[in-house]
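FORM 7B: Structural annotation worksheet

SECTION A. Query
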Amino acid sequence: MNNKLAGPVILLCALGGQSIDAAAESEWNISGLLREEATVKTTSDLNGAIQSGIPTNGEAVTNTGLGAGINPTLTRPASFKHKNNWNMFATRLEINLDGKLSENLQAHFKLRGFSDQIGLLENEFKDQNLYQQSYGSAHSGARLASAGKNWTLDLPVAYLDYSNGPLWLRLGNQQIAWGEAIFFRVADTPNGLDLRRNLLFDVASEEFSDKRVPAIALRGSSATTSTSLGTLKLAISSFSAATTSAP
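SECTION B. Predicted structure
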């Protein structure tokens, strides 16, 4: 077993009730990705969906809302008006560590790093705080995370999976995704969303998996067989017949 993995393996074995000798026989897999994500303008038109591209920046427009009698016109600051060519220039790093500790126990980890170097290409984004956000006494924005002005590093996955027959349990830092609707989060609300990297739209195949804020939780499920369901149904029918029969 790789010496670099000895510490995490010993800790996991203590949590899972395994001996160190058993941990040495466990199976570990490492995978990951390094991806560059960039968006660049292909025409001279401004992007009206972001603040710097709104056509009315620096121009007075008629106030058609509340207070029109006091302020008949409204003007957005001209300083918002920038003609940048790059809207995003970021690097994403993900490292996955998956281990099979025994026939019933597995461990899963993911280290995620994201750095946006747009400020190096466009002066409009220079020295902007893109990712630091207060979380408790830190500015990490989330649990098990760290952040700077233009980078984030977190551990969105750190949990143990236990399965034994129909019983399945998951304990640790995890996302809980409920529902099958695409884009619309109807029942998929146990975890909040981190909108620092992307506001609404992201890589379609990832959907909200890159935005959900993981939380430490215990999740489980248990299945029953058709035989037990049939026995339960028969018992309920017998109980119903007994309670409705005449004395």
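SECTION C. Observations
The chain has a mean pLDDT of 77. The longest strand covers residues 86-100.

SECTION D. Sign-off
Analyst initials: ____
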